[in-house]
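Lecture 7, part B: from sequences to assemblies.

Below are the input chains for today's worked example.
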Amino acid sequence: MAFPSLNLLLQSILSGVFIGGMYGLIGLGLGLSWGLLRQINLAHFGFVFLSGYLSYHMVTVWGIDPLLTLLILAPLFFAIGVAQQWLLSRFKISPFNSLLVTFGFTVMIESLIQYVWTADFRKLQSSYGEEKFKIGGLFVPVPELLTLLLAILLAFAVWAAMRFTDIGKAMRAMAEDGPIAAAFGINQRLLSLLLSGVCVAFAAIAGVCFALTFTLTPTQIFSWVGVVFAVVMLGGLGSAIGPLVAGIIIGVSEAIAMVIFAPSWAPIVSFSLLILMLLFRPGRA
Amino acid sequence: MNKVILSGIFAIGAAFAALPWLGVPAFWESFLYLLFHWIILAVSWNILSGYTGYFSFGHGAFFGAGIYGSAYLAGTIGWPFLATLPAAILVAAALGVGLGAVVFRVARVRGELFALLTLAITFVLATIILNTKIDGGPGIYLIGVDIPKLGPSQSASIYMMGLVAAVVTLAISYIIYASKFGTGLFAIHDDEDVAEVMGVPTYRYKLYALAISCGLAGLAGGIHAVFISYVTVSETFSIAVPLSVVLMSILGGSRHWIGPAVGAVFITCLLYFFTSGDYAVFGRAMVGLILVIVILFMPSGVLGMIAQWWRGRTRPAAAVSPPVHEAAPTAAIVRLAAKPAPSTDVLLQVRGLTKAFAGLRAVDNVTLEVRKGEILGLIGPNGSGKSTFINLVSGHFKPTAGEIIFEGQNLAGLDAHRFAQAGIARTYQIPRPFSQMTVLENVAMVAMFGGAGMSRTEALQAAEEFIAFAGLSQRAHALPDDLNLHQRKFLELARALAARPRLLMLDEVLSGLTPSEINEAIEMIQRIRDRGTTIIFVEHVMRAVMALTDRIVVLNYGAMIAQGNATDVMNEDSVKAAYLGKAHA
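Predicted structure of the full complex, as structure tokens:
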């Protein structure tokens, strides 16, 4: 066990907050479709990576600004989300089988990525990708900050939409009791298509942020599954703000565990938190 | 249990055992070994997850515990390899039981939560192994480990170990499938609460199934350690193991003992022939595509499809048969000549029974007696606590205070299956049959686990009789979903009777029936009492209450407000007030 200097500790906590933003951003769409549509969309991770690779491709090959790729990718992935939901509802897939079907999609996406971009590491190079500035003694990298800000923005936008708009209220009613909501005139079919589209569009946004901050490789897809699941469960299924808060809690505790013990101990933090929560407050999910 | 199937498993195993001596190339030995390996993993996963419906994503953890158990003991400490296998089984089973003992205590951890918990355990275990002396980072080499000579060559020896383990796993899977234990597991799958109330010791059964499932996964891991001969954390605990196993079982059919093996053979061949060589990427994509198509078009798996098709073929015969209530009077039941006079012996004594839900006292300090052979009517307005009372006396709820003394034994606080085994049975107001069991299996299941405690063979015979009594013989092999409400209500009755209860609680069996169906049901309840069963009868149909009951008890807001002879009680002012309001009284 090593006792780090205060500065190192603060820098770690800050990077924990940033990685927490990433967890929260990926977890947002996953948790919404899980909680409101009762679908465990494993393909969410595939979509995040696919969007990351597409963004990488547009930036490196076509020379488009990374943030502009969002404008292309978000609508494109919205359409993919709608199509996926159409397929799943057409066959009346149960929550558990949705996990298996979307696992199938993920494997196909992984193969596609490997075929097009090979299994090599890819890093998106952009004008601000490496940029960072200093506040006090702490370095703040711009792409990470951007991710965190987007995560906060989207989480609050969803929260406000669920709370104050008619569509948001209708979605909550649908999640509570679909058939009853339908009997009161809520178009369940349309809403679920819309919601699924939004969730997958969020995956696309997370993917662009991912490409800005991390090195891409197709086999990494599954290594994010465990911790993001933990984030979503801790944050509460279908919650807008929850995944972000849980993501930051897990990110920070991992970062602290990394400096105090060793980086390889980090996974135990999130999963111990998850196990404790499942055992003592199973009602959360 | 079918001896032919069991000997068939061993005969096929023996045939495969001859292969190494026939000079089969080493390539085929290792390919077949991989087949056995996945068969063990998929079939063992299914023993818990397929049979009980508790999907585990932690099979990788138990498999990994086995791999590292063997690798550490043989590779690092230097035990002889065969001695490490029992250790691998024990370590994996102990891990599973330890996990299950905690997790299954938390009543709300079901389904998805269990799946995630087991997934989380995989990552925790991997982290611990990676960071401690067990692995420490670089992995463990087993190159120098002596493999016991079980065949002409080294690869043949590993092949033989895999074969033996696969045969044993399949045999265990079949034995459980065809046993009373297996029936209990399937009941847990369909409706765990009802299974417990019908007498299945659900907690213990889940732990047993988990232990067997994990132990076999540990065995597969132990053998696999020497097959791959270099063990690393990232390979062992990858997400590929649990997901492949789930996929194989679903594909083959997870409600069948051999389903996962079918799926394992299919997927392993597919992966092997498509992912070797230049087309590896396409192979993986193909596997993904097949998974999607299978789940979309045959969600119950290959064997599930076959079973469905088989039922579909046999159903038309049942469809043209006459409706059940016409068949009922012909049921071969001899009615006793005289109605037995209720004795003064006390069968059930309830003292100060109270159940509070966060402040609301649904049943409040109720004290009453039920005498042998009587029909006690339990009435009261909606929300007066009748259903809670039944849930307490059947053990589903644990009382906040009070005693439930049945035949001299205080049952309060025990698990529900102990109530059932003591001789108490109930029906549900909204029928809750086990949805994936046929009518016959539903009834036989209760005969096995209820107060009668029969063997599977006896229970199936007895079930025929009870189904005839309830007039459902024509539909014995139908699934509950294919029955109408009337038939489902009678199935509830047949099921409760099959337990041969000494106390039967009927929760609004008449609600939703037509007047002529009610007459039929009243007649049947009389026949049940004629057989010597004591009955607590909860009902809103006052005509039936008046016709059937010897005494009635009236509940209001959880408290008992009157008891005695039906006519007298109904004329009491407090009872009129409870039903009609104060002004009238």
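Note for the exam: Chain B touches chain A at residues 55, 102-103, 106, 108-109, 111-113, 116-117, 119-124, 126-128, 130-131, 137, 238-239, 243, 246-247, 250, 281-282, 284-285, 287-292, 295-297, 299 (CB under 8 Å). Keep this in mind when comparing with the next example.
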